[in-house]
Design goal:
Strand order of the largest sheet of chain A: 1-3-2
Shape of chain A: globular
Mean pLDDT of chain A: 88
Number of domains of chain A: 1
CATH class of chain A: Mainly Alpha
Distance between the termini of chain A: 24 Å
CATH superfamily of chain A: Winged helix-like DNA-binding domain superfamily/Winged helix DNA-binding domain
Largest sheet of chain A: 3 strands, antiparallel
Order of helices and strands of chain A: HEHHEEH
CATH architecture of chain A: Orthogonal Bundle
Low-confidence stretches of chain A: 1-9
Helix content of chain A: 40-55%
Oligomer: homodimer
DNA sequence: CAGATCATATTGGATGTCCGATATATATAA
DNA sequence: TTATATATATCGGACATCCAATATGATCTG
């Protein structure tokens, strides 16, 4: 049970969900997202984590992107917003009562 | 990204955490825990999921148990309560703002 | 134009998570 | 006693997650 062995409570499986949530607050590019996740998690996700995650979300049609020079600013597509709402409901039902 | 492919938002990596939380509310045996998880998740975890998870938590010294016939009622040990508090803090910091 | 820096991207692999199938033990029913 | 149901337990393996290392491309500075 990895989440209590010292690296308690990582976000296994919920990374995409967290990214969608963060992007719903404010459009960001990859590094900004990584930094924002670092604040929450305590550790900055590696490039090999963040970019494949973004690619997956993009492939699912959940992201809008705007390229400007070397940076790509991501936001939520309408499909992404819808997916986030559904995911939020499930997340809330599953973890209800834990956050007090 | 499995959590949006149709089986959105499973609890990957947070199963042990959820079990500790449930047991902090009320001591339960394996099947009760599985049923309680079913309510939250929508799907009942299989025996191959729930019992290894309980074993891990037990091996970590987080559970107290009381055997009575064929059922084993689990509760939290002092060590388990402490671990839950720490895990709750991390969870809250990570997912703050998502549950509205 | 080099050289440095930053953002993005890919890939290989170690590890973790969870399920299905199966097995054991206890209790209940016929 | 035999059959059935329920709770617990284990094992093998499919799949997912995430990181480290590395590579690509753009921007800036000397």
């Amino acid at each position: 049970m990895r989440e209590f062995g010292g690296e308690c409570c990582d976000m296994r499986g919920l990374l995409g969900f967290l990214i969608l949530f963060l992007l719903s607050k404010k459009p960001m590019h990859g590094q900004e997202i990584a930094n924002e996740l670092a604040k929450r998690r305590g550790e900055k996700p590696s490039p090999g984590t963040i970019y494949p995650a973004l690619k997956s979300l993009k492939d699912l049609g959940f992201l809008s992107e705007e390229k400007e020079g070397k940076t790509i600013t991501y936001g939520l597509s309408p499909k992404g917003e819808k997916a986030l709402e559904i995911a939020k409901k499930r997340f809330t039902r599953t973890f209800l009562g834990i956050i007090t």
